[in-house]
Write a structure and sequence with these properties.
By secondary structure, the chain is mainly alpha-helical. It contains 13 helices and no strands. The two termini are 18 Å apart.
């Protein structure tokens, strides 16, 4: 293979990586809107979450089986227990808090709050891993939280105790997901991203289904066709597709550039909520949203590198 052919293949792979990253972000951004539509049909958070995880479980079992064929050697017991624990934290606790929060918080506002998770990654990395934040990172954190404060202040008149509690739950969801990323950072390289994600998601699916049977009677699963369709969309388009697309994008364009494209998430959710649910933002809330997206976007920019390295 000549150098020109390799370069062309590299460009195509990179272009596919960007496409997959955008696809993952857009697919994931539909989830909060569909969750709110499910609540409008009268279904509760525990039932909708159990349906979502139950319908997505076969896909993650297949992902796990596929990863076993490609990965040499058994998984160490310590890594297995750690992966299961991280899955419960990042995909059960975080998802449940998010679902509960979206009962009272509009979908667009909920995504703005959840999008703050990289700032929690920064703080936890400093506290847990001893990584000292740079001045640029601190500035980005200040800008992002100033934007959140502006969004919440502009919406203060419509915030009652229930909505404020919902916002707190979504913020807790962001914290749980950030902790999952920080504590999983040394496990993923050892066992592989596909196997790690599959096991983590299977553990979370099992926990969500078990939680349903503890908290709700089994006949709650007898939902309407519309609710089942919403749950199927959340499972396949809002969960399985983003997980797969993001994993493939990371291989082609790296974490930094994939994270930057994540800034599309809150924007697309706001547009979907506006078009499908008549949710809107005031001018001050739009400004606050821009600050949040901008602050987090700058935070996820890669550090200054040698041009030769950055251009690879």
């Amino acid at each position: 293979m000549t150098a020109a052919v390799r370069a062309e293949a590299g460009r195509r792979g990179e272009a596919l990586g960007y496409l997959l990253a955008v696809l993952g972000v857009l697919a994931f951004s539909t989830r909060p809107v569909l969750i709110r539509l499910g609540y409008a049909e009268g279904v509760d958070a525990e039932t909708l979450l159990a349906l979502r995880m139950g319908l997505s479980l076969p896909f993650f079992v297949a992902m796990w089986a596929w990863s076993r064929r490609r990965t040499a050697g058994p998984l160490a017991p310590g890594d297995l227990l750690r992966t299961v624990a991280l899955g419960l934290l990042g995909y059960w606790i975080a998802s449940y808090c998010d679902f509960l929060g979206l009962r009272t918080v509009p979908a667009g506002l909920g995504r703005i709050i959840l999008f703050l998770y990289p700032t929690f990654v920064l703080v936890l990395s400093a506290l847990v891993l001893g990584r000292r934040p740079q001045r640029r990172e601190i500035l980005c954190l200040v800008v992002a939280y100033a934007g959140l404060a502006l969004v919440l202040d502009a919406a203060a008149e419509s915030f009652d105790e229930a909505r404020l509690g919902g916002a707190g739950l979504i913020l807790l969801s962001a914290l749980a997901y950030a902790a999952y990323l920080v504590w999983g950072s040394d496990t993923v390289p050892r066992i592989g991203s596909t196997r790690f994600t599959a096991i983590a998601m299977m553990a979370a699916c099992a926990a969500c289904i078990a939680q349903f049977f503890v908290l709700r009677p089994a006949d709650h699963l007898l939902v309407s066709g519309r609710v089942l369709g919403i749950a199927a969309w959340i499972a396949v388009i809002g969960t399985v597709l983003p997980v797969w697309a993001t994993s493939e994008a990371l291989k082609r364009i790296g974490a930094a550039r994939a994270a930057l494209l994540g800034a599309l998430g809150p924007v697309s959710t706001i547009l979907l909520a506006w078009a499908g649910m008549d949710e809107g933002l005031t001018g001050l809330q739009v400004l606050g949203a821009v600050l949040v997206v901008g602050g987090v976007g700058l935070l996820t920019l890669p550090r200054r590198q040698d041009p030769k390295i950055a251009g690879r």
